[in-house]
Design brief:
single chain; 131 residues; alpha+beta; Heat Shock Protein 90; 5-stranded antiparallel β-sheet; 26% helix; disordered C terminus
Length: 131
């Protein structure tokens, strides 16, 4: 199992920095990680301290788990259906479409929004929309 962990402030500049740190991971991992980070910026505010973890399991299991932990357990993510003309509201919908599953774990002083993706890197026909 491999683990990458980043302590950072949720700012617009943090998203491309996070993608750069995850450059050895697939597009779906980078996209889901930055969408979860962007949700913190949008719903809790710029500068919120977060911990981002990317956990890769053994090749035989072929899964990657992304976790974004923030200090606000009372604010929950909401899966929305954005219309064609809306400029926001698609982040969690993208995560929902790409991930095999996602959820929220709460503690007394934090919450972690996580998702798990299947690793398709070695499979034939793998593309950015899944295996």
């Amino acid at each position: 199992m491999t683990l990458l962990e980043f302590e950072l402030l949720a700012t617009p500049k943090a998203a491309p920095d996070l993608r750069h740190h995850l450059r050895d991971h697939g597009f779906d991992v980078r996209l889901c990680a930055t969408e979860l980070l962007t949700n913190v910026i949008d719903h809790l505010g710029e500068g919120t301290p977060v911990t981002v973890r990317v956990i890769g399991t053994a090749a035989s299991e072929g899964r990657t788990r992304i976790e974004v932990t923030d200090p606000e357990p009372r604010v929950s993510p909401v899966l929305m259906s954005a219309t064609e003309t809306e400029e926001s509201g698609r982040g969690l919908a993208l995560v929902d479409a790409l991930a095999e599953r996602w959820g929220v774990e709460r503690g007394p002083d934090r919450k972690t929004v996580w998702c798990e993706l299947r690793d398709c890197s070695g499979e034939r026909g793998a593309d950015v929309t899944g295996c």
